[in-house]
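Work Package 4 report. The design task specified in the project plan requires that, given a folded chain encoded as structure tokens, an amino acid be chosen for each position. We show below one input record used in the internal validation round.
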């Protein structure tokens, strides 16, 4: 155990946290400003490779899913969901979609960022789910905005060359479409430059996540959840690379100084699914009071890795479209069971995980579908105690704190019992 005198509770805003708030405000302000000055605006699904837009002089992008997550984090999720429900959208739809539809059809009212500027082009991607394609199609029909759909094959095993070519050929189509619609010329060298920044950002992102390996861990997963945000709004920028470098530096320095977010960490947990955006503060404090720390999440360790992997897959300076196509499957949703298990096993072994919380998500069926099988595997093959809880990532009306913590406390008891059984008598 580290020297008790050196331990300081870490549930306060870090320098990286302060920088993050400024960066996010600037990103959204810049987006609105550039749109107002005549930039070509695209709305994209979260996994559309935004570095492509750096190839154009004046194309800006908004990410409805990211904006919806921020709205949920700021407490306006249910308000915006209810607006969509009053328009006839079912409560069973993904809460990101309901928040976005509620916001967009109410002119950005009640949004922490005044919504997103109206798009000239919608780019969806069925890589994560087909619901998103239907959701963007609503805007296509209502506003008569063109809708480009990237069709990405599911990946039950490592990506094949055929799939890679299929994806990169669609990127070429997309580039031609933007050239035609915006009247701007595409320059691949600018994308190459953006990818160098992405490489810097992701290298430092992985360095930041690795501080979870120290005991106690240098971070909580809640830090990593919020720090993901600029990867979606500032992908391919120098500012993002610099922000993640400072984030990793600061977190490593804290570990060296003995400053840990959960100083008396007794349980090291892993989270599987999207962040519970409306619960970040509450859940982190309540876990810390139990000396439990969520130190990793499949949602955050997948960033920068190939399907089924845990380590970084860096840009090698080659053809940008080939790299972007190869990394297209980085998020968990399109992965089959074997790939999900492979990556989680690496995380569990690398970080010394004691227990896994599988958060079955009412909204995100694609993420949640295989969780019962995963739980069985993790428990039976790896001997790691696990629990299933019910959440909705952005709609607090579908979340019960007490029933969730009853199950989490039961998980901690199982971990204690396992340790007791392993202690030599
Ligand atoms: S259902 Fe899941 S993958 Fe689809 S838009 Fe919602 S959160 Fe994203």
């Amino acid at each position: 155990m580290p020297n008790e005198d050196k331990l300081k509770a870490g549930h306060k805003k870090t320098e990286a946290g302060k920088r993050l708030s400024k960066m996010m405000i600037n990103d959204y302000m810049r987006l609105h400003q550039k749109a107002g000055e005549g930039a070509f605006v695209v709305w994209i699904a979260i996994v559309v490779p935004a570095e492509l837009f750096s190839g154009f002089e004046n194309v800006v992008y908004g990410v409805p899913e990211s904006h919806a997550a921020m709205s949920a984090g700021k407490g306006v999720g249910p308000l915006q969901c209810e607006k969509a429900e009053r328009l006839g959208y079912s409560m069973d739809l993904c809460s990101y979609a309901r928040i976005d539809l509620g916001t967009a059809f109410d002119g950005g009212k009640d949004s922490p960022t005044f919504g997103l500027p109206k798009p000239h082009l919608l780019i969806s991607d069925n890589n994560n789910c087909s619901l998103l394609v239907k959701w963007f199609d609503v805007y296509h029909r209502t506003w008569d905005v063109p809708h480009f759909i990237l069709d990405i094959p599911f990946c039950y095993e490592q990506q094949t060359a055929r799939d890679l070519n299929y994806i990169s050929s669609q990127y070429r189509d997309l580039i031609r479409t933007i050239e035609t619609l915006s009247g701007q010329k595409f320059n691949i060298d600018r994308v190459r430059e953006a990818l160098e920044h992405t490489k810097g950002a992701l290298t430092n992102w992985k360095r930041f996540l690795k501080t979870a390996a120290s005991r106690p861990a240098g971070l909580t997963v809640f830090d990593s959840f919020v720090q993901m945000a600029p990867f979606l709004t500032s992908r391919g920028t120098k500012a993002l690379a610099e922000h993640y470098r400072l984030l990793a530096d600061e977190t490593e320095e804290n570990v060296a100084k003995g400053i840990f977010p959960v100083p008396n960490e007794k349980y090291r947990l892993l989270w599987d699914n999207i962040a519970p955006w409306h619960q970040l503060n509450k859940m982190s404090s309540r876990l810390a009071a139990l000396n439990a720390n969520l130190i990793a999440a499949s949602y955050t360790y997948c960033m920068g890795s190939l399907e089924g992997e845990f380590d970084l897959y860096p840009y090698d300076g080659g053809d940008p479209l080939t790299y972007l196509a190869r990394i297209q499957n980085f998020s968990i949703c399109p992965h089959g069971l074997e790939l999900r298990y492979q990556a989680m096993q690496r995380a569990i072994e690398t970080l010394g995980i004691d227990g896994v919380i599988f958060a079955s998500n009412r909204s995100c069926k694609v993420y949640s579908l295989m969780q019962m099988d995963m739980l069985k595997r993790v428990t039976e093959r790896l001997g790691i105690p696990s629990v299933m809880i019910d959440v909705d990532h952005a709609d607090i009306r579908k979340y019960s704190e007490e029933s969730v913590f009853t199950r989490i406390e039961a998980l901690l008891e199982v971990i204690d019992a396992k340790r007791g059984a392993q202690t030599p008598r």
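The beta strands are 40-44, 59-62, 121-125, 147-150, 267-272, 292-297, 355-361, 386-391. Validation will be extended to a larger panel in the next phase.
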